[in-house]
Amino acid sequence: MTTPTDPPEDRPPGRAGDGEEPSSGEPERDEAGSSGTASEGATRDGGGGGPPGTKPSGLRNPVAAVRGLGAAALAIEALVLLLAIQPIRVLGGALSGWAVAAVVGLAVLAAVLAGLTRREWAWHAGTVLQGLLLVSGLLHWSLFALGVIFGLVWIYVLHVRRAILG
């Protein structure tokens, strides 16, 4: 039996320095119940399951990470659209009631899509939303500018999604 004061090279393989009994020589099992060692080429953080020749992302749950990125981008877009209404009206914009309703509708759509990023179709709808925001630039030039900015953000989100998930 080893003690925590023994040098690390004298300790058996397993968890070092936690004061537990040494392992029985069996490979440790991960949460899914599968066993493996580092020499098998599998990593325990889920990053080694991709096709050969690809680098693992290093994320524990890449699907959730990408979903969170998309949801965050859409939620920020919704917030910015709602906050943009008053400055546009004050700084010389001639936003009619229809234009305000269109901006609020786009903001609500962005917020709803942020909550639905688990669904595949929500990603396509997010792309359509960016096009609608660009078209709303016909109502006011600043909406077109927001459409360009968030369109570029959405293109980056889709790029990250493709790079991580394939």
Strand and helix map with partners:
Layout (H helix, E strand, L loop, with lengths): L61 H29 L6 H19 L4 H16 L5 H25 L1
In short:
The chain has 166 residues and is mainly alpha-helical. The chain contains four helices and no strands.
Percent helix: 40-55%
Instruction: Give the SSE order as H and E letters.
Output: HHHH
Shape by Cα distribution: elongated
How many β-strand stretches?
0
Spans of 5+ residues with little confidence (pLDDT < 50)? Answer: 29-48
Structural classification: mainly alpha
C-alpha-based Rg, rounded: 25 Å
Major sheet: size, sense and barrel closure?
none
Number of helices: 4
Distance between the termini: 48 Å
Overall pLDDT level: 77
Strand content: under 5%
Features:
mainly alpha; 166 residues
